[in-house]
Structures are given as C-alpha cells and as structure tokens.
Design brief:
Helix content: 55-70%
Distance between the termini: 21 Å
Order of helices and strands: EHHHEHHH
Number of strands: 2
Structural class: mainly alpha
Strand content: under 5%
Radius of gyration: 15 Å
Number of helices: 6
Number of domains: 1
C-alpha cells in the first residue's frame, strides 16, 4: 500500500492544517526538552495536551491555542483538513507521551529515548511534509485487526 492509498478515519469536522503543523513543532520542542532534562513535568504537560485534543470536546488545548495565535500573527490563511485523523493521531500521541512520563519516572531512559524518538519522528513528518503517521498506523494496524470494518 502506498501512502496515497492510506485509509484514515473520516469526519465532517475540519481543522486548520497550519495549526496542526505548528502544533507538531511545539510537540517536538516539548518532547526533546522533556527528554533532555528528564522532566516528568514537561512530558506530563505534553501528555495532558494530547489528552485534551484526543478525548475531550474542548475546542483547543494549550499547545494548539499557542499554535493558533502564532498562525494568526503570521497572517497565514486557513487550510481546512479532516479532523478525525488528527484525533486518532492525538490518541496515539497521548499513549506515547504518557508512556514517556512513566518511563522517565522509572528511570528507563533508553526505552524513553526510543519512544520519544518515534513520537518526535511522527511530529516531524507532520510538520515538514504533512504526513500523518496516525493514518499509516490506522491503515496497517487498526484496519487489519478489525478486518477492515468501518464504523
């Protein structure tokens, strides 16, 4: 399956791709900083932000709020994209960042660097080329496990 054939969750809701990409930049900064300083607090902030975006009906999270303001200050036009893949990706981000908090708290730094590296790679792909790793994982892991059923 090539990247153009990826199947993502779909919804009628839209988000601004520019804010999504800017948010990815801040996630990279939080992940790298949290790991560098082995700061459970920074990583917990990141996990909380992912939780808000993934599991609540709040319109914005702290990181996406900052991103929205940066995009407005830069005067960039809105570029709507489907929200559902971003929610799925935020759920993956929450799981990974929560795991980072646990790993750093337990002193398992090698495992934390691996998980943090994967999270940072995913955020970098989103930031630089708009590639949604969540769609990739959804297509290759979730759909095969559910026998391709769409809800």
């Amino acid at each position: 399956m090539n990247p153009k054939e990826l199947i993502c969750p779909v919804s009628n809701e839209r988000v601004n791709e520019r804010i999504v990409r800017c948010t990815a930049l801040f996630i990279i900064i939080l992940a790298v900083t949290g790991l560098y300083f082995q700061s459970e607090l920074i990583l917990l902030l990141m996990a909380t932000d992912f939780f808000i975006r993934a599991f609540t009906s709040l319109k914005t999270s702290p990181v996406s709020f900052v991103s929205q303001n940066v995009i407005e200050m830069l005067g960039l036009d809105r570029k709507p994209i489907d929200k559902a893949p971003k929610i799925f990706a935020a759920r993956l981000g929450f799981l990974m960042s929560f795991l980072l908090v646990v790993l750093v708290a337990s002193g398992s730094m090698i495992a934390a660097y691996v998980i943090g590296g994967i999270l940072t790679l995913f955020a970098t792909l989103e930031l630089v080329i708009g590639f949604c790793a969540g769609c990739f994982i959804y297509s290759y892991v979730v759909l095969p496990l559910t026998n391709g059923e769409k809800n």
